[in-house]
Amino acid sequence: MCKLLFLAFYKLCFYAIILLFGDSMKKYNYEGLNEDTHVFHLWEPLHFKIKKNYAYICNSPLYNLVSNVLLIPIGLILIVFNKIMFGYRVIGREKIRDDEGFVSISNHIHPMDCTFAGLIYFPKGIYYPTLESNFKIPFIRHLIRILHAFPIPKDSKEKERFYEQINKALNDNEIIHMYPEGSMWPYYDKVREFKYGAFKMAVKANVAIQPIKFVFVEPYGIYKLYKRKKCIQAVVLDPIYPNTELDFEDQIRDLRERAYNSINGG
Q1: Whose CA is closest to 54, among 127, 158, 167?
Q2: Model-level pTM?
Q3: CA–CA separation, 226 vs 25, rounded Å?
Q4: 27-41 in b/e burial notation, b at 16+ Cβ within 10 A?
Q5: Is the Cβ–Cβ distance between 223 and 171 less than 8 Å?
Q6: Which residues, including other chains, have CB under 8 Å from residue 109's CB and lie 6 or more apart?
Q7: What is the pLDDT of residue 10?
Q8: Nearest CA to 15 among 119, 134, 139?
Q9: In the prediction, which pLDDT does 84 show?
Q10: Which DSSP category does 237 fall into?
Q11: For 157, what's the count of Cα atoms within 13 Å in the CB-facing half-sphere?
Q12: Residue 104 phi, psi dihedral angles, 5° rounding
């Protein structure tokens, strides 16, 4: 166990160097860029393909045991790691409901923001769909799977199974974290257009959307000594529930609009 945790910490430091001094330090020109454009890329040398009957929400007792055992120590490592590297803190955690499942959403502004989202709800684990390509990255593919990440399928039949398993998880009081903007734009401080997937999940399961806004603040205190980039904070906003008086499609559009306005004005 100690060796595994040391390896996890070592790899986190390794990728932090890449993230801090590699691509994420580029100053991207987002003006005129298609909002679906993926501007950030990591090394993806491995092969990965979603197999038939893939368990997006894994119910294996062994998997869940390993995941639950590792969640606490890895979470504690990430608390320290993100605090030092990004000045990360959470504001408004008291607004989170802890007695029901829901779809958590946020803007997508950093390669490590999946860990930012996870720490908002820590020590409870969350599930989060991610790009299939992230399962082609050495070590990271195993770490994110242990921490409940699962790939987003492109095949239409697989998408049906994907949504079915998510719906069941939400009804079992689990948390699914989504990035409705789709692509990740490092240190982009505006809110981009939302896609419908997260809101379809929430309406189908009749659960709330929990909006999170990641914001940037100038380095303060000790961070002024070594940070070139702004510090990152998570602002937890009030949960938003579907309007069940509307029909299904209108509920999705209405929920998407209210969630966008909440984060854009939060």
Answers
A1: 158
A2: 0.88
A3: 14
A4: eeebeeeeeeeeebe
A5: no
A6: 184, 185, 186, 187, 188, 189, 214, 216, 232
A7: 45
A8: 139
A9: 95
A10: P
A11: 5
A12: -90, 135
